[in-house]
Amino acid sequence: MQRKRWFTGTVVVVMLSLTMVRGQARTQALDLTVDQSAVTIQAEPQVAGPTAQLSPSQAVRCDHWLALGVHFKGQWQPERVTMALSVLDHFASSFGEERFVRLIQQAVSEASDGQAGGLTFAMDPSRDYWIASWTPQMGQNTLSESLFDQAHLDTHYRWRFLDDLAEAQPRAVTIQEFALGHELGHLIIDALREEHIAKQLAPSFLEDTYAELYLDYWADPLHDANESLASEVALWVYGIRRSRAVRDYQEQALVPALAPQSDLAVSSLAE
Fold first, then answer.
1. Residue 114 has pLDDT above 80, yes or no
2. Torsion sign across C-alpha atoms 119, 121, 122, 128
3. What is the pLDDT of residues 126-179, one digit of tens each?
4. Inter-residue contact 125 to 74 (CB < 8 Å)
5. How far apart are CA 103 and CA 33, in angstroms?
6. Residue 123's closest CA among 74, 54, 178, 65?
7. 113, 184, 205, 266: which has the fewest C-beta neighbours closer than 10 Å?
8. What's the distance, CA 96 to chain centroid?
9. Class of 10-30+41-258 in CATH
């Protein structure tokens, strides 16, 4: 099942909108020069993980997610691992770690025909226009070096809700954290499709009901409902205040879909 949606910055007067790629690879870019002398961590999937240069508490969190089947691939600086762990922890605390892990498992297993079971965070050293991607068939979220070029982000990626990220709870969210949250939003939407079918709903139920909202309420009105909804998932996770119409959508469609299912249990993504 090949699906591709691009996470693309679009200049519109003073606002640039953000989209992300689905299917093969979805990336967007920054242009800062990389300091090659910076301390990096080499971590590959299916190995112990990038814990050696993390603080003791962060190493414990990293080991915890590694045990659940979340892997790191490529050259990772410690602060970037910390950022990814923070996003994972935030999603897990929003609707329960067990439910979150199960949704990861469902999304990856379905897209890969059961060939993959865990989630990989891959660091792409290239600096291209794209900054982040979700590749369902590989169970992989890829982050370009460009994502960490703040000057490039400031120039090319102006979300309409960017200033609202400062209102996130329990602290402000960075653009890098939100970009990764958006990609996890795509994962969550994918994971819920089979559950919708089991409830005799269309697999695209969440997008279909979101599309009924007035376009100006969308998180990303310049792109399709799936792109807006991926951002909407992250906005909900981070507690960003939305319009009354969007809050109604969250209460009536999104939150019930994310609620833990009593008949689901999970111990590890790696199983």
1. no
2. positive
3. 877 789 999 999 999 999 999 999 888 888 887 788 888 888 878 899 999 999
4. yes
5. 37
6. 74
7. 113
8. 16
9. alpha beta
Quick one: angle between helices 78-95 and 225-237, nearest 10?
90
Which H or E run contains 133?
A: strand 132-135
pLDDT tens per residue, range 186-221 = 999 999 999 999 999 999 999 999 999 999 999 988
* Sign of the C-alpha dihedral computed for residues 105, 106, 108 and 109 taken in this order: positive
In single-letter form, the type of residue at position 244 comes to: R
Which contacts (CB < 8 Å, 24+ apart) does range 19-22 have? 19/220, 19/223, 19/227, 20/132, 20/133, 20/134, 20/179, 20/182, 20/183, 20/186, 20/227, 20/230, 21/130, 21/133, 21/134, 22/134, 22/136, 22/186, 22/226
When the pLDDT of each residue in the chain is averaged and rounded to a whole number, the result is 79
Q: Kindly list the distances between the CA atom of residue 102 and the CA atoms of 23, 90, 218, 231, 258, in Å, as whole numbers in the listed order.
A: 21, 16, 28, 20, 11
33's tokens: 């020069």
Structure tokens at 205: 């139920």
Distance CA 155, CA 265 (A): 44
- Only one residue has tokens 């249990």, namely 265
pTM of the model: 0.79
Amino acid at the residue 181 = G
Is 119 a residue whose pLDDT tops 50? yes
